[in-house]
Amino acid sequence: MANTFAGVVHQNKFLAAGAVDVNAIVSITSLVTPGGGQPHGGQLVIGFVGDGSGSMSGEKWRNARQALIDSVGKLPESCEYFVIIGRSTPDIIIPAQRATQESKAKALRVLTGVKEDGGTKFAQWLAAARGEFQKCQGDIRVLLFLTDGENDEGGDAKLEAELQNCARLFEVESRGVGDAYKPDQLRLIQQALGGSVDIIRRPEDLSDDFTAILDRATSLALSDVSLQIWTPVGATIEMVKQFGAEILDLTAKVHDSPNPRIKRIPTGNWGEETRDFHLVVKLESAAVGKVGDTKLCARVSLVYSDNGQEAEVKLHEGGQVLAVWTDDEKQSAVINPRVADYTGQAELAERIQEGVKALEAGNEELATRALQRANALAEQTGHEATQKLIRKLADVDDKGTLRIKKNVDKMDVKELDTRSTRTVRTRKVNG
Amino acid sequence: MAFKCPDGHDSTTSDFCSECGLQMPAPVQDDATQGISVDVTSDAQPVSRESCPKCQTDRDDPSTPFCGVCGYNFVTGQGGDVVPQTVTAPQPTVQPTAATPAPAQPAAAAAPIEIEVTFDESNVDAPKGMPPRKFSLYDEESLIGRRSSSMLQTVRLEGDDCVSRRHLLIIRQSAGSYVVRLFDNTNGGMLNGKEMTAGVEEPLAEGDTIAIGAFTIIKVNVLRGSRR
User: Fold this and answer.
1) Each residue's pLDDT tens digit, A6-47
2) Which site among B24, B43, B73 would you substitute to test the A interface, given the most A Cβ atoms closer than 10 Å to its Cβ?
3) Is A384 helix (H, G, I), strand (E, B) or coil?
4) What pLDDT score does B200 carry?
5) What is the pLDDT of residues A377-420, one digit of tens each?
6) Which residue of B has its CA nearest to A15?
């Protein structure tokens, strides 16, 4: 398999005289071309961490175990895999190995006898997964991480430390089942390692969801792809947010390259997909151009490793983000529709999380305000699914006035919280 | 090898200074570089001169691999076997882009067209008891098809495997005037009970129903005339 990338920059390059912030949406589509000789970035390694703590007892555990059994059964023979059951100490029931028929048959026998008990220790579970990944040859690495509860390692410090160890080694598809897990903790993992988060409301849906994760994982063709951004002297990358299936703030991941003008931002594994990146470049006052000047404020490309060789993919028109300073307010006041849309989507996620936290803390007034704003943003950005979730918790009248319902289902709150970062692809806009 | 930028830096690139990013003076008679900076609207949308080998339409959006009209895949060279029979002239983009400024205002503008998707429950395979789903279409062209990770339809349908990933296109011709076009290599469609022909644009009216796939029904709920 091989990837073909196409990218385009959307922006209003006109800035008011003296303006220092340059906004752009860089939209990148990757196509996987089947065949084409050798697999590109090596093969898939898929790890499973199934929460086996005491709280999983009963239906959740039965379904989780069945989902693991089903998933292992479906693994392609060429991939490597491992299975860890998370307890007070992680139980590596199937160490990293290739998914041969014999291996899978043995794994299924082991899984059938696995029991649940013990505590929820995310950092230890991830450390065990890291150890297994490091034994593998494949470099497209995906961890399926299932939990139903809150990390009980006394705060998030241990988790955060372990996430640093895991950075860029693998991606995590986190799933929360039930209504007792903390979406914030799953997002912490996502923020550090990439991948997705989602809720599984009904344990019986676990198996289907795992299948979907496997489908996506097996379609991945490239690992460790980075955005490469050139910026001029006096410019800094103020913000990079990725709008793939979900919003991911990558600003903290901007790192140096040997060339001081060039920064890189890891974006993880790529399959056939489109991701949009909202880029904000800030210029020092000395770097701001005069009225009439045209300045290149960023040049965006992609880099990845192709069988040990570094490959760079240039984007359409050189991936140029420009600035033209003008006195004409009619030109500079226009916000590019895509920039506006994604700014709205990012605020939508924040408002939802704020509203949910207020709701859980019993502050109905703040919750109402935040969710009302969220509802309006959802309408504006075409977030129909999100609006539906908001309306499970609250009644909204024709004028958009929102009232929180009397008896709110805890599961509905978790669902809204977990899915707050979902992205809706920008509507095709003129220009 | 080295170029001098207007501010005196040594640059390794000839278009913009590799140090400060300032645009370099245009070399004499370089029409190509001039062409890039002629747009005066908001978006630096590159002008693509590539046209689709199947339907001869100009490629409108280089960020997607598909031809917006017939669905030809520019990367793999496959698909796109329909030639539209009522070719719409490319619409000049005269919409006042400046009229939609910040995301701050709540979206009050009603969608010009709204469709409702239901399942024909008399079909044994259709999921039962699904609430109707409504979609507001704002775009000039709205692609309707089965949700898939590889394609970004405007309306992403689920539940009916006989709906193609690119099934229908609803196209605005002028305010309040819409047509629908079926893609070829799809599983067909019926407009108000009449078999549709792939590639032919058929006008839409409020209340029209389009049946596609095994049991998916799309009803045109609202079709607003010229905006007040």
Assistant:
1) 888 999 999 999 999 999 999 998 887 655 444 443 489 999
2) B43
3) helix
4) 82
5) 999 888 999 999 999 999 999 888 999 999 899 999 999 999 99
6) B42
Mean pLDDT of the residues in chain B: 71
Q: pTM of the predicted model, to two decimals?
A: 0.69
B42:A334 CB<8 A: yes
Q: How far apart are CA A337 and CA A160, in angstroms?
A: 36
Would you tell me how many other CB atoms lie within 10 Å of the CB of residue B36?
A: 15
If you search the block for the tokens 């048959």, which residue do you land on? A105
CA nearest neighbour of A294 among A319, A327, A322:
A322
**Quick one: which of A10, A8, A6, A54 has its CA closest to A33?**
A6
Test the B interface: residue of A1, A4, A8 with most B CBs within 10 Å: A8
CA distance B5 to chain A (A): 11
CB A114 within 8 A of CB A85: yes
Q: Which residue in A331, A344, A431 is closest to B103 by CB distance?
A: A344
Residue position matching structure tokens 């108000």:
B192
- What length does chain B have? 228
Does A274 contact B141 at a Cβ distance shorter than 8 Å? Answer: no
pLDDT digits (tens, 9 = 90+) for A136-173: 998 899 999 999 999 998 889 999 999 999 999 999 99
CB-based contact A90:A147 (threshold 8 Å): no
Average pLDDT (A212-219) is 90
Contact B42 A4 (CB under 8 A): no
The two three-digit tokens of residue A224, written as one number = 């460790």
Q: Residue B141 and residue A428: Cβ atoms within 8 Å? A: yes
A8, A271, A337: residue with CB nearest B100: A337
Residue A350 burial class via C-beta count within 10 angstroms: exposed 0-12, middle 13-18, buried 19 and up: middle
Secondary structure string (H, E, C) spanning chain B: CCEECCCCCEECCCCECCCCCEECCCCCCCHHHHHHCCCCCCCCCCCCCCECCCCCCECCCCCCCECCCCCCECCCCCCCCCCCCCCCCCCCCCCCHHHCCCCCCCCCCCCCEEEEEEECCCCCCCCCCCCCEEEEECCCEEEEEECECCECCCEEECCCCCCCCCCEEEEEEECCEEEEEECCCCCCEEECCEECCCCCEEECCCCCEEEECCCEEEEEEEECCCCC
Cβ neighbours of B137 in A, within 8 Å: none
CB pair distance less than 8 Å for B22 and A295: yes
What confidence score (pLDDT) does residue B61 get?
62
Q: Are A6 and B75 an interchain contact pair (Cβ–Cβ within 8 Å)? A: yes
ipTM, two decimals: 0.74
**Cβ <8 Å between A272 and B16:** no
CA distance B9 to chain A (A): 11
Residue A188 exposure: Cα atoms within 13 Å on the Cβ side: 20
AA letter at B69: V
User: How close, in Å, is residue A313 to chain B by CA atoms?
Assistant: 14
* Residue entry with tokens 């605005």: B172
Determine whether the interchain pair A331/B40 forms a contact, defined as Cβ–Cβ distance below 8 Å. yes
Question: With pLDDT > 90 as the criterion, what percentage of chain B qualifies?
Answer: 9
Q: Residue A251: count other Cβ atoms within 10 Å of its Cβ.
A: 12
SS3 A301: strand
Which pLDDT does position B93 carry in this prediction? 41
